Amino acid sequence: MTARAWDGDAYHRVSGPMEAMAMPVLDRLSLRGDETIVDAGCGSGRVTRHLVERVPRGRVIGFDSSEAMTETARTNLGDDADVIVGDLLEIDLRVLGRDDPVDAVFSTGTFHHVLDHDRLFVRLAGVLAAGGQLVAQCGAEGNISNVLAAAADVATDPQFADAVLGGRKATYETPEATKLRLVAAGFTDVRCWTEPNTVTPDDAVAYLETIVLGGEAQRLGPELGRAFVEAVVERLAADGPPSVDYVRLNIDARRG
Q1: Residues of the chain predicted below pLDDT 70
Q2: For residue 38, which of 9, 21, 58 has the smallest C-alpha distance?
Q3: In the CATH scheme, what is the code of domain 8-143+168-200+245-255?
Q4: What are the strands of the beta sheet with 59-64, ordered from one edge?
């Protein structure tokens, strides 16, 4: 199955709810203001901008696997942050000419897109200094279940069958399994927990087409993909304003 392509500019326009979910996670970072922080999965740079403001004497490194996202992030951040395109499973900061470990890794809305969490946490531990912080939030077990149920229902229509061809490439984990992986990767003071967060987007079609169901829509093509998303939104609207029932996995840990 071909990996989905992201539209950095479209994501930046509609990702206000993702930014809002990130703010309490950002507040969990313990900062003096001179740290070097990796934003693991920086997207279009909306949340990265807030990180930059928190470390006026430090440096932020945005890291994302999407070339389109990093291009948008570079435009939005300018010289205020370094932005790298690459795979988190192969994260290497030497491309910036630095061998020193960083003080913190921060991430929101990204880790569930990475299929190998064992390797992910080992790689993140490898860029962190001893005692460095890992503060993150991603999709947990049960994430967006209402949208996935509606999408599966719509996909029973033969014209939309390709939307779910091959399934979703996502890893929605439990706190218990995640804690075990973090400890095995060398992290200490590990806390993992879930929380629900229901989002009602201003423009549900644009939000789902760009973020939540982007892969499904792309497999169908522009016209059929839009029709598919509109049909999903129609089903979600049967019980009120169409919403997305997020379940978020929170991670706080330190590199041992």
Answers
A1: 1-3, 95-98, 166
A2: 58
A3: 3.40.50.150
A4: 82-85, 59-64, 36-40, 102-108, 128-139, 244-255, 187-199
pLDDT at 176: 98
Are 39 and 18 within 8 A, CB to CB?
Answer: no
pLDDT in the model for residue 2: 46
Structure tokens at 239: 């019980």
- Give the phi and the psi of residue 25 in degrees, each rounded to 5: -70, -45
Structure tokens at 209: 């087409």
